[in-house]
Design goal:
homodimer; 43% helix; 2 domains; alpha/beta; Ald_DH_N (chains A, B); 16 helices; Aldehyde Dehydrogenase, Chain A, domain 2; glutamate-5-semialdehyde dehydrogenase activity (chains A, B); Aldehyde Dehydrogenase, Chain A, domain 1; amino-acid biosynthesis (chains A, B); 432 residues
Chain lengths: 432, 432
C-alpha cells in the first residue's frame, strides 16, 4: 500500500523500505515523546549540550574529513566556511541548545477553553506535530538546531543533511542520541538518514503515513525540488527578494543608514535587500550620494535609466526585468526611481517574494498605506529588512523563515512546530 | 516559466493558459478584497443572499437540467439528493449566507503586539490567504458556502465543482458575482471553473504563482488525487475512521446512547463511528443488548470472535483487518472486545485516522489517559463522535474538517482562511 502511494517505481524498493522503517521508528518515538514532561525534555537538552562537548574530538575529526573531501571536490569557500566546525563554534552550538532549555514548553498549553451550548466543556490544547523531516545543506549547526527544537516541542526528527557533511552529522547525531538515552527518552526521536542517494529525498517527502511535516532549508533549487515532489505538507522557507522604498518624505540620513544596512550588513541572507526604490522627488538630492556610498562598500549597482543618469561616473549597469526579479544574495543592488508610493507598491507586488519590505518616510499616512497594502511576511516602517529574524523578534529560537501563508509565516519559533487538538469533557452529549 | 513549473506536458496549453488567466484575475481581485472594510464585505454578503433568491427560478431551472442529466447517467439516489435544490433549500442556503454577516471579521485583527529590545514596536496582524481553490463534488450548497466564507475573510475563490452540477453552479455564481458588483467589490473574487476536463484540476493545484491554498472536499479518492498532484498547500479534509471505546467503568445507559448516536444518527458523515471497542469486563453484561439494539436499527455488524460468541443469534460477520481500517460511511459497524484501555489506545493508534475518538467511562483517571494519549483532531470523554462540527463548536461556520496537523486541525471556521503578517514600526532600527 505504501509503495503504491508513492507513485514511484519500486526499482529501489530496498532503499524505500529502509527509509520507511526509519521514519516508522521516528513515529513510534514521537508518540512517547508527545507525552514526555517538560522537565524530562529539558533534561535531555541539557544532556545534548554536555554530550556535544564530550564528543568534541570525534566530531571535529569527522568534520576535518568532511572538509578534506569537500575541498578536494572543489567546494566554494563560503560553503566550506559553513561546513567548518571549531572548538569555539561547537561551544556556541552547545550554548544554543542550552538556551532552548530556558524557553517555555509550548506543548500541553490550553490555547482556548469554552462551553458548548449542549453543556460540553471544550479545551483546545497544543500538541506536537509528530515526525518532522529536515532536508538541508552542509551546515552541521542546522543538525543540532533542528534536533534541539524538535525535542523541545515533543516531535521526532529525521535529518537529511548534505552528503558533504555526512561524517560530521553522524558524529553529532551519535552524541545527541546518547543524550536521549541518558535522559530515558527514546533515542529514535533523532534519526540521521545516511543514504546519500538523491532518491532518498524523493521517497521521504512522500511518506504521508509516517511523516507529518517536511522542512527544506537551503537554496531555491532545493526548496523547489522538495515542493514539486512532496505529498507531505511542506513549509517553504527562504527566498527573499526584499525592497527598501525611500519615500519623498524620508529622513535622508535614516534612509542612508537603513539602505546600507539592508544591503551590506550580510548580503548572503534572505532578508537582505535586493532592490532599492526611490521616490522621484527625493532622488536628485539623495540618491547620488547613496549610490556613491554603496559603490564604496563594494556594491555592484544595476539601475534604471534615471538612476544611471544621476551618477554617470559610477558606470551603473543597466537594469532589466531580471534584475527586478532576482535575489542576488550578493553585494549587488538594483535601483529604480518611482513616481510615488503607488508605483513602489505595484513594483513590490509584481516582483517581490512576500518576504520583507520596508518604507522609509516621515509621513504616517504614506507608511500606513504601504504597511497595509504590501502583502509580505514582514513590513517595516523606518527599519532595515535585515530585522526579520526569530531571535530579533524575541522568539528565542528560529527553525527558519517561512515564506508561505499557511500554518506559520515569517520567523518560526517553537510554536511553528506544534499543532493542537480539541478535548471535549461531556456527560453523555449526543447530536440530536 | 509557469509551464515549466508544472512539469506537465504542454499538450493542452490552451486549457492551462485559460485557467491560469482565471486564477490571475482572482489574484488581482484578492488584493483589492484584502483591503475591503468589514462593512463592505458584509454588504456584499447581504447582497449575495438577496441575489440568490432573486435568481431562484434561473437557479432551479439549471438545477433541474443537472438532475435530469445526472439521473440519466445513473447517479445514486443519495448523491442526487445532495445535488437537488428546492425553493426551501435555497432559502436555507441564503439564510446561511446572512448568518455569516453576523460573525466577527477575522481580518485586520491585532493578534499580538510587543516591543523588540531595539525599541521597534511589533504587531502581528491577521490577513487573508489570497486565492483559494475549492475542489468538490456535486453539492451546490458548497458553492455558496465556499464563496460566502472566502469573501467574508477577504479571499478570492476559484470554484471547481463537479461537472454534474455545472449548470447549477453557473447560475449560482452568476447571482453571487452580481452581488459583488452591486456592492462595488471585484466580481473576479468569485470564479467558476467551467472546464470539465479532468486535467483542469491537475493544472489548478500546481499554480503556486497565483493560488495560495487548495481545499478538496469530497471522498477519499478525490482528496488523495489532489494531495498526490498538488504543489500548492492543501488542507486535507474528511476521512474519519472514528471509534467509541466503552470502558469497564462506563455508565451502561450512557454508553448505549452514545454508541447508537455515533453510529446511526447520520452514518454517511466523517464523524460517525466505524468501530466500537469494548472492555472485556463490561462486554458480557452490556454488549449483547447493545448489539441487538444496533441490529434493530439496521446496522450490519462485523465482530471479533469474542463479540460474535456473545450474540450468536445475530449471525455477526467475522471482522478482519480490513474492517478495522475501513471508513464504512454506512450502517455498518465493526466491534472488538479489548483487554483494557491500553489495547483500545493501541488499536486506535494503529487503525484510526486521527479524526474523532471517544471514551465512555466514569473513571476520570482512565479518561485522562485516553484524552492525553490519543492523537486525534478531537477526543471526547462521555460524548458522541458526531459532535465534531464547526457549528456545534460555536464557530458559526465550517469550511470543512481538517484531518491534518498543519495550519488548521479539526472543524475549520473563518480563522482557518486567514494568515498573518508582522508589522514593525521603527525609528531607524538596523541590525548591528
Amino acid at each position: 500500500m505504501t509503495l503504491q502511494k508513492t507513485n514511484l517505481s519500486a526499482q529501489n524498493s530496498e532503499l524505500y523500505a529502509q527509509l520507511f522503517a526509519q521514519t516508522r521508528l521516528a513515529q513510534h518515538a514521537s508518540r512517547l515523546l508527545a507525552n514526555a514532561s517538560s522537565d524530562s525534555k529539558n533534561a535531555a537538552l541539557q544532556q545534548m549540550a554536555i554530550q556535544l562537548l564530550r564528543h568534541e574530538s570525534l566530531i571535529l575529526e569527522a568534520n576535518a574529513l568532511d572538509i578534506e573531501q569537500a575541498t578536494a571536490r572543489g567546494m566554494k569557500q563560503n560553503l566550506l566556511d559553513r561546513l567548518t566546525l571549531t572548538p569555539a563554534r561547537l561551544q556556541t552550538i552547545a550554548a544554543g541548545v542550552e538556551a532552548v532549555v530556558a524557553l517555555p514548553d509550548p506543548i500541553g498549553v490550553t490555547l482556548a477553553s469554552w462551553q458548548l451550548s449542549n453543556g460540553m466543556q471544550m479545551e483546545k490544547r497544543s500538541v506536537p506535530l509528530g515526525v518532522i523531516v529536515m532536508i538541508y545543506e552542509a551546515r552541521p549547526n542546522v543538525t543540532v538546531d533542528a534536533a534541539s527544537l524538535t525535542i523541545k516541542t515533543g516531535n521526532a526528527v529525521v535529518l537529511r543533511g548534505s552528503s558533504d557533511a555526512l561524517r560530521t552529522n553522524r558524529a553529532i547525531t551519535k552524541a545527541l542520541r546518547e543524550a536521549l538515552q541518558h535522559s530515558h527518552l527514546p533515542i529514535d526521536a533523532i534519526q540521521l538518514v545516511e543514504f546519500t542517494e538523491h532518491e532518498a529525498v524523493d521517497y521521504l517527502v512522500r511518506m504521508n503515513e509516517t511523516v507529518d511535516l517536511v522542512i527544506p532549508r537551503g537554496g531555491a533549487g532545493l526548496i523547489q525540488s522538495v515542493l514539486q515532489k512532496s505529498t507531505v505538507p511542506v513549509i517553504e522557507t527562504g527566498v527573499g527578494n526584499c525592497h527598501v522604498y525611500v519615500d519623498s518624505e524620508a529622513d535622508p540620513e535614516m534612509a542612508t543608514r537603513i539602505t546600507l544596512n539592508a544591503k551590506t550588513q550580510r548580503p548572503s541572507v534572505c532578508n537582505s535587500t535586493e532592490t532599492l526604490l526611490v521616490h522621484e522627488k527625493i532622488a536628485p538630492d539623495w540618491l547620488p550620494q547613496m549610490l556613491t556610498h554603496l559603490h564604496e562598500h563594494g556594491v555592484e549597482l544595476h539601475g534604471c535609466e534615471r538612476t544611471r543618469a544621476l551618477a554617470p561616473q559610477l558606470a551603473i549597469i543597466p537594469a532589466n526585468q531580471d534584475d527586478w526579479a532576482t535575489e542576488y544574495l550578493d553585494l549587488k543592488l538594483a535601483v529604480k526611481i518611482v513616481a510615488d508610493v503607488e508605483e513602489a507598491i505595484e513594483h513590490i507586488t509584481n516582483y517581490g517574494t512576500r518576504h520583507t519590505e520596508s518604507i522609509v518616510t516621515r509621513s504616517e499616512e504614506t507608511a500606513a498605506l504601504f504597511l497595509q497594502r504590501i502583502d509580505a511576511t514582514a513590513v517595516y516602517h523606518n527599519a532595515s529588512t535585515r530585522l526579520t529574524d526569530g531571535f530579533v523578534y524575541g522568539f528565542g529560537a528560529e527553525i527558519g523563515i517561512s515564506t508561505q501563508k499557511l500554518h506559520a509565516r515569517g520567523p518560526m519559533g517553537l510554536q511553528a512546530l506544534t499543532s493542537y487538538k480539541y478535548i471535549g469533557y461531556g456527560n453523555g452529549q449526543i447530536v440530536q
